[in-house]
Amino acid sequence: MTDVRRTAAWAAAKVAWQQVIDQGLVDCWRCRLPIAPTQPWDLGHPTDRPHHAAPTDLSVIPHCRPEHRRCSRRAGARERRAVTAARMIDGQDGRLW
Question: What are the sequence ranges of the domains in the chain?
Answer without folding.
Answer: 4-70
